[in-house]
Design brief:
Layout (H helix, E strand, L loop, with lengths): L15 H18 L3 H19 L8 E7 L1 H4 L14 E8 L3 H4 L5 H20 L2 E4 L4 E4 L5 E9 L12 E4 L6 E4 L1 H12 L4 E2 L2 H12 L9 H6 L1 H17 L12 H15 L3 E2 L2 H11 L5 E4 L5 E4 L17 H26 L4 H12 L1 H20 L2 E5 L5 E5 L9
Parallel strand pairs: 2-5, 8-9
Antiparallel strand pairs: 1-2, 3-4, 4-5, 5-6, 6-7, 10-11, 12-13
Helix pairs in contact: 1-7, 1-9, 1-14, 9-10, 10-11, 11-12, 12-13, 13-14
């Protein structure tokens, strides 16, 4: 007798309109949390000027040749800081020294001397320009006008043949300032960009792109076209994850910070994208849900005595760099698991509201739950702008929940009384 074949789980399907609407709203939401072009230009100009100054400082004897942004600035995943009282953005910077710098800053006192020289040089700059400066274990922070903070970390070129993109590998002082450890911010960016270039296998991409473009063209200030938007899909999905994290954890209170760091989250999202993007999906909605579901399975959980766990997430561009190393307490690990469950719940609620063409208030509330007040306001303001645009063009517009706007001719107004 022929044995029954195992039943594969039924994949939830989404319409072209629902998929396009979801990512249209995701674009709107992400944009209210990211810096504007003007803010980015000011940010780049500020740290560029500081970098030019550092290159001339006598402390480094001509060895410091470049200051470059890394992390979220280079990956396109910047979001507004957790602290609602702040208006500026945070940026991570690498102050790069030539390989010869290792001779100047070698030995047990070398890492501490390197940080000291960076602090002394930046202190002169801060005093000259009236900037706030703060020294940390392995970096120095400047706060510029407008509230932008920049973390300057000194790294010394140290090419490696055993890691990905090893030509940009470097060494950085450890937190105890006793030795150097592996780092590769430019290599990490290259690895991220390679994953971002994977085209998602959306089964009805043509129809979804057409629906998305029809929606964004009605904007007073149109969003980029569908090809550009989906070309940076990974960065957007990272942003959405980080925004939800910020909303759920809030600003750190005192020394207690249970929120998973951005480097850990970004790597999990990127690795999940690399696995899920080539698989068939209807659109960004089900792709994101599958990626989020996969995230906890993408790092090692090693059992330790007394029920504790050691988490490990490899950085392929640096030697022995555990990107989960900061998730080193039971409280942080439990907080991550609880947040991940809540993230799935929040995203599912928003997806359901859009897919079921729920009312505007339901969608706005789901957006607020997942991504905060700014997201809710973005949804409501977008709806109001569409109504006003259609009204002034002589059409009446009805927003049918998660579907696209439906326009009808509007009869001329002939009432002149009360």
């Amino acid at each position: 007798m022929q044995r029954d074949l195992p039943q594969l789980p039924t994949r939830r399907r989404f319409s072209d309109a629902a998929s396009a609407k979801f990512f249209y709203l995701a674009e709107k939401i992400a944009r209210v949390y990211e810096p504007t072009t003007t803010q980015l230009e000011e940010l780049d100009r500020a740290y560029g000027s500081t970098g030019d100054y550092l290159a001339t400082c006598p402390e480094f004897d001509g060895l410091l040749y470049r200051v470059h942004a890394h992390g979220s600035r280079q990956l396109g995943t910047m979001v507004r800081p957790i602290d609602a009282c702040r208006t500026g953005y945070d940026i991570d910077l690498a102050a790069c020294l030539e390989a010869a710098g290792m001779r100047r800053y070698s030995g047990s006192t070398g890492p501490a001397l390197l940080i000291e020289h960076l602090y002394v040089a930046l202190k002169r700059y801060a005093d000259r320009h009236g900037l706030e400066i703060k020294r940390h274990e392995r970096c120095v922070t400047l706060t510029y006008a407008g509230g932008m903070t920049a973390d300057f970390a000194p790294i010394i070129d140290d090419p490696s043949q055993v890691v990905m993109h090893g030509d940009t590998h470097a060494s950085i002082p450890d937190r105890d300032l006793q030795r150097y450890i592996s780092t590769n911010p430019r290599g990490y960016c290259k690895a991220f960009d390679l994953i971002a270039q994977i085209s998602p296998a959306f089964e009805r991409s043509t129809a979804m792109h057409m629906t998305f473009d029809s929606m964004r063209k009605s904007e007073l200030v149109p969003l980029p076209d569908a090809d550009e938007v989906f070309g940076r899909l990974l960065s957007r999905l990272v942003q959405l994850t980080k925004i939800n994290r910020n909303i759920r954890f809030g600003a750190p209170s005192g020394t207690l910070d249970l929120a998973p760091p951005s480097s850990f989250l970004t790597t999990l999202v990127a690795n999940a994208y690399a696995i899920e993007a080539p698989k068939p999906h209807d659109g960004p909605m089900d792709l994101l849900l599958d990626m989020v579901s996969l995230m906890p399975k993408l790092f090692q959980r090693l059992q330790l005595p007394e029920g504790r766990e050691f988490w490990y997430l490899s950085n392929p561009t640096a030697l022995n760099d555990n990107l989960a190393g900061c998730m080193d307490t039971s409280s942080k690990q439990k907080a991550f698991d609880a947040w991940h469950e809540r993230l799935q719940t929040d995203l599912t609620a928003l997806v359901d509201a859009i897919d079921q063409s729920a009312g505007l208030d339901v969608i706005a509330k789901a957006a607020e739950r997942a991504f905060g007040d700014r997201a809710k306001n973005a949804v409501l303001e977008d709806n109001a702008a569409r109504r006003e645009e259609k009204r002034t063009s002589g059409q009446a517009v009805f927003i049918a929940g998660g579907s696209a706007a439906i326009s009808t001719p509007s009869r001329a107004h002939t009432n002149f009384g009360d």
